[in-house]
TrEMBL record:
The keyword Transcription regulation applies. GO terms for molecular function: protein dimerization activity. Gene3D superfamilies: Helix-loop-helix DNA-binding domain. Keywords: Growth regulation, Transcription, Transcription regulation. Pfam families: bHLH_ILI (PF23174). It comes from the Eukaryota. Residues 1-51 form the BHLH domain. InterPro entries: bHLH_dom, HLH_DNA-bd_sf, PRE. The keyword ATP-binding does not apply. This is Transcription factor ILI3. Belongs to the bHLH protein family. GO terms for biological process: regulation of DNA-templated transcription; regulation of growth.
């Protein structure tokens, strides 16, 4: 496949940018209705990093909770299954 055939059209890029913008929560979207692609990508990266921190924090909290529980309790099994997911 030549590089010309594998190029993404401007229309496809605009469509992908719109889809990406729709995935961001309202509070994270760039303030202008038609934000630049670079601003949108930066905000998306920032949002993904914050989600990753939140997941890590929740995982740590679940691990700490599990350490304080009876390992044979039904609640402990639920927490272990969450940590495996």
């Amino acid at each position: 496949m030549s590089s010309r055939e594998s190029r993404i059209s401007d229309e496809e890029i605009n469509e992908l940018i719109s889809k990406l913008q729709a995935l961001l929560p309202e509070s994270r979207r760039p303030s202008t209705s038609r934000a630049s692609a670079s601003k949108l990508l930066k905000e998306t990266c920032s949002y993904i990093k914050s989600l990753r921190r939140e997941v890590d924090d929740l995982s740590d909290r679940l691990s700490d909770l599990l350490a304080t529980m009876d390992s044979n309790s039904p609640q402990a099994e639920i927490i272990r299954s969450l940590l495996r997911s």
